[in-house]
Amino acid sequence: MSAALRLERVAIHFGGVLAVNDVSLEISTGEFVGLIGPNGAGKTTLVRIVAGMLRPDRGRVVLGQDDVTNLPTQRRVRLGLALTHQIVRPFREMSALDNVALAAGLRNTSSPFRALSSVSRRIETERAVEILARVGLAGAERKLAGALPLGQLKRLEVARALALDPKIILLDEPLAGLNHAEASKQIDAILKVHASGVTVALVEHNLEEVLRVCRRLIVLNNGAIIADGPPARVMADPAVREAYVGAGADRHA
């Protein structure tokens, strides 16, 4: 199976701190992968490198067949990458519908704002309605994004990413701040995205939901990969247990 994303010996320093340390990994097309690790492990930094927000000190980032290491974020989006943020970033004075239509126009115009004023807006609007329904926001189309509760805002973030027609979507802590019911709804929305054929990389601290949906886990600690494989095997790895709960985990198991 072809690779949707490949990292080759990626590393980045912040001052004297090695935040990502020689990370190599490959995510195949169609996979649903969980990227986990304790606080400060380097997960979000790695996501930002993949998204083009940070440039690595060394190594390569490859999307499909394209080396994107030195490309800006917008070029990566046009090559099939989408990202959701831990802190949601909608246009709060726009409706949910216009937020998604705006994203849908990014692939078709030099300026996405033309999607809201061009004669072809009907196409983006119809697509936005369909995407909002897919993530469980049918009926919220005309509501201002700023008036939506956090759970719906998180699903709107997924909808905006899906509107980019991505090949791979990186989800940076999409369950952060959500209660159990909203987290379940969010995961259901993400599962629908995956079922549509999109490769998913999920960065998340909610291990209960991660273990429910992911078939492969990659564990980062101190900027390096310490485990990669099926969830049961990974979670039984002493190095993973120590990273999460300390060296005494095995003694008290």
Q: Could you explain how this protein is built, in words?
A:
There is one protein chain. It contains 9 helices and 10 strands. It has 253 residues and is an alpha/beta fold. It folds into 2 domains: 1-80 and 166-253, 3-Layer(aba) Sandwich (Rossmann fold), CATH 3.40.50.300; 90-164, no CATH class. Strands 6-7-8-3-9-10 form a 6-stranded mixed sheet, sandwiched between helices. A 4-stranded antiparallel sheet has the order 2-1-4-5, covered by helices on one side. Helix 6 (180-195) links the parallel strand 7 and strand 8 (199-203). Helix 3 (96-104) packs across helix 4, helix 3 (96-104) packs parallel to helix 5 and helix 5 (150-162) packs parallel to helix 6. 42% of the residues are buried. Residues 247-253 have low confidence and may be disordered.
What is the distance, rounded to the nearest whole angstrom, between the alpha carbons of the first and last residues?
Answer: 38 Å
Radius of gyration: 19 Å
Residue share in β-strands: 15-25%
The low-pLDDT segments are 247-253
Separate helix tally: 9
Helix content: 25-40%
Q: Please indicate the count of domains.
A: 2
Q: Per CATH, what is the topology of the largest domain?
A: Rossmann fold
Arithmetic mean pLDDT = 88
* Overall spatial form: globular
